[in-house]
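Exam revision sheet. Question 4 asks you to relate a sequence to its structure. Input first:
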Amino acid sequence: MTAAGRRANTWSRRWGWAVWGVAILAGAVLPPEWLLGAAPRDSWSALATAAHALEFALLAALLVWRLTPQPAPAVPTAGAVALACAAAAAAAVVVELLQRPLPYRSFDVWDLVADAAGIGVGAAIVSVAYRRRVARAPGR
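Answer key, structure tokens:
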């Protein structure tokens, strides 16, 4: 790998998850009208639930990726996956607690359930992808 490639990889490993975390936080506290162009009609929607699961799946995946030892080929340790899931779950709880006092948002246990499902799926996908990459590595 070239020096530029190593620098790009280091930058993305350090900041990709942080940028996504800030995006989740901004989306959680801004009024829905600013994000969607209109307020949702119902307090629950399948699209919003899917969005919760997807955003936290990506956060968990980025955290697992960040916490996986390098250099490649390496696989995420159980501790790294557990830490990534715990950090993403803590972020989900913080997001819901921040929404509670806002007049245009609400604390919703079902959002936490969707977040938890997304966290599990995201961590699992990255873990399996790492393991498959290692299994395909030359010399195995």
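Marking note for examiners. Helices lie at 3-29, 32-36, 46-67, 78-99, 109-136.
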